[in-house]
Design a protein that fits this description.
The complex is a heterodimer of chains A (300) and B (275). Chain A is mainly alpha-helical and 300 residues long. Chain A is built from 13 helices and 2 strands; from the N terminus they run ααααββααααααααα. Chain A has 2 domains: 4-46; 64-299, Orthogonal Bundle (MetI-like fold). Helix content of chain A is 76%, strand content 1%. In chain A, strands 1-2 form a two-stranded antiparallel ribbon. The two termini of chain A are 40 Å apart. By secondary structure, chain B is of the alpha/beta class. Chain B has helices spanning 2-22, 34-47, 60-68, 83-91, 121-129, 155-165, 183-191, 221-225, 245-255, 257-265; strands at residues 24-29, 52-55, 74-77, 96-110, 118-119, 146-150, 178-180, 196-201, 210-211, 213-214, 232-240. In chain B, strands 1, 2, 3, 4, 6, 7, 8, 9 and 11 form a 9-stranded mixed beta sheet that branches. Chain B has a two-stranded parallel ribbon with strand order 5-10. In chain B, helix 3 runs parallel beside helix 4 and helix 9 crosses helix 10 (257-265). The chains are: A mainly alpha (300), B alpha/beta (275). At the A-B interface, strand 1, helix 7 and helix 12 of A face strand 7 and helix 7 of B.
Chain lengths: 300, 275
């Protein structure tokens, strides 16, 4: 009997394989080129703003009045809005999603498991504009009345709704990572006399950790890039939030709200592309950080 | 023989194409006028084959510049032309002729449960600049004022800035103001929050909010037309000299029943009652 690896090696280099490999190569190069093009496009349209305003006045100034003459383009409140909403929603949603995944994969009875999985996937399909709409019409007025605060359109409401958006995504991906842990490991752990609790948290979860952390990362990115929800419920005030009940104005909603009516080629137009560039840089930074953490984890 | 037919065809095509381009009417200027200017131009194009419009909104000042250098035939304006702009036009042998085409009437709105009925322009300015932060300071309940504004790029924002914030000393809208990105979002934000105050073009204000009177005058089409309501102004289209041909036809369309209906449907006030 031939082993699997033999088959792969011997039939490698045939004409069919060559064509397939060229095809795959061509598609992946096209994908990379497209990414490079997007990056170049963003940089090409965003960087000209630096001719008019210094980088210090963009990143560290508090005033966002883009249509004044001369425009005030301080993006610090916008960046603070993006970071605070992403952070707060992640802090609230990721533990819930993790526990939900552990429960679904390890604790729930088999029939309930498939029910929860279907439910999670259905929840994941809800368009963000529907979540935003519910937030605007139901959650925000209720919060305002219940907590007796000035406005329901604020950082906390936004973060809760962003949490709703990312919980299904993170939970179902983490659940998949947990269920793909081989049963032999669990059996071995039980055979050594470990309890169910010890097996789950000392064997299964550490084994699935790379999958869980990449699921969490995807969730954070989703919250970071979400536009519709923040446009509808964040309140849109360009301030650095001092409390959970302050309205915020993240970068994404700023771009979405202002791009439509901005004259092409104006300083404001370039500033909005620059905001997009900042978003991209934040995403890359998070990715690199997680890569570094993962590498350190492997070395230990 | 066949070649010559082709050449003939090509020449007629060229003449036709250049003729079509020659018939293009360029409209530029105020972003406030843009919504109904564009809608009217589109309707006019549909009804009159062969007329081509190119519409853009770069601001009133830029519209006059385009009119002066001949790159636009119609300059939209949210204010009357300034003397310096008339001079710039005359220097290039362009004679700006104004047509008032619509009224822009902005109404401050609050939640229906709010007891406040009337505010002065000065109070509105103080509320929007963040000086007044509690409703009891303007005769309401003891509750914080939640200021709701529009996006800086919206025409309504520009009108509010000019008529309220820049009256007297130029002032910024407070950063704590919530920002909504459309008339619909503004109406929802105010109708869902009992502490909110917002503003909207008169045509968009519905029953879900309460319209405030300004300086004791309630907003109405009649009040805007006879000049009694303080937050109303004329919007203009300027042409080079008295319009002729297609341009004249368009101005007649704009000022006629159909054009004025479009004005109403985009949230502005028509010059006369059109039903």
């Amino acid at each position: 009997m031939r082993k699997k690896s033999d088959i792969a090696q011997n039939s490698f280099g045939g004409r069919g394989d060559r064509i397939a490999s060229y095809l795959i190569f061509a598609f992946s190069v096209a994908g990379v080129l497209l990414m490079a093009f997007i990056l170049l496009f963003l940089a090409g349209n965003g960087l000209p703003v630096l001719k008019e305003v210094s980088i210090k006045d963009i990143l560290f100034a508090f005033d966002w009045y883009p249509v004044e003459d001369p425009p005030a383009l301080g993006m610090l409140p916008l960046i603070a809005g993006t970071v605070s909403a992403t952070l707060l929603s992640s802090v609230m949603a990721l533990p819930v999603a993790f526990l939900l995944a552990v429960f679904t994969a390890e604790i729930a009875p088999r029939r309930m498991r498939s029910g929860i999985k279907v439910l999670l996937e259905l929840l994941g399909f809800i368009p963000s504009i529907v979540i935003g709409f519910l937030g605007m019409m139901v959650l925000a007025p209720w919060m305002q009345g219940a907590l007796n605060i000035a406005t329901g359109l604020n950082l906390l409401t936004t973060s809760i709704l962003l949490g709703f958006l990312i919980i299904p995504l993170v939970a179902s991906l983490s659940e998949e990572a947990l269920s793909s842990v081989p049963y032999e490991l669990r059996d071995a752990s039980y055979a050594l006399g470990a309890t169910r609790w010890e097996t789950i948290f000392k064997v299964v979860v550490p084994y699935a950790l790379p999958g869980i952390s990449s699921a969490a990362l995807l969730g954070i990115m989703r919250a970071l890039g979400e536009t519709m929800i923040v446009l509808m419920v964040a309140g849109g005030a360009a301030i650095v939030p001092r409390s959970f009940f302050d309205p915020v104005r993240p970068l994404t909603s700023t771009i979405a709200a202002e791009m439509g009516e901005t004259p092409v080629g104006s300083t404001h137009y370039h500033a909005l592309f620059f905001a997009g560039l900042i978003l991209l840089l934040i995403t890359i930074a998070i990715n690199l950080a997680s890569y570094a953490i993962e590498k350190r984890g492997v070395r230990q | 023989m066949r070649k010559s037919v082709l050449v003939l065809l090509a020449v007629t095509m060229l003449v036709w194409v250049s003729g079509a381009f020659g018939g293009q009417i360029v409209m530029d200027g105020s972003t406030t006028v843009l919504p109904f200017g564009q809608a009217a131009a589109e309707r006019f194009m549909n009804e009159n084959n062969g007329v081509k419009f190119s519409v853009s909104g770069t601001g009133t000042g830029n519209g006059f510049k385009s009119l002066a250098d001949g790159s636009a035939q119609i300059a939209n304006a949210s204010r009357f032309i300034k003397e310096s702009e008339i001079k710039a036009c005359m220097d290039k042998k362009v004679y700006p002729v104004p047509f008032a085409v619509a009224l822009d009437c902005i109404v401050p709105i609050v939640h229906p449960s709010n007891p406040v009925k009337n505010l002065t322009k000065a109070q509105l300015k103080d509320i929007y600049s963040g000086k007044l932060t509690n409703w009891k300071e303007v005769g309401g309940a003891d509750a914080p004022i939640v200021v709701v504004g529009r996006d800086t790029s919206s025409g309504t924002y520009g009108t509010w800035q000019e008529m309220i914030m820049d009256a007297g000393e130029k002032t910024r809208v407070t950063q704590r103001a919530q920002v909504t990105s459309s008339s619909g979002a503004m109406m929802t934000a105010v109708s869902q929050n009992k502490n909110a105050i917002g503003y909207e073009g008169m045509g968009y204000v519905g029953d879900s909010v309460k319209a405030l009177s300004v300086e004791g005058v309630a907003a109405s089409s009649a009040g805007a037309r006879n000049g009694k309501y303080p937050l109303a102004r004329y919007l203009y289209m300027f042409t080079n000299g008295w319009p002729e041909g297609e341009l004249l036809a368009f101005m007649n369309f704009m000022l006629g029943r159909e054009g004025q209906k479009i004005v109403n449907s985009t949230g502005f006030v028509s010059l006369q009652d059109v039903k």
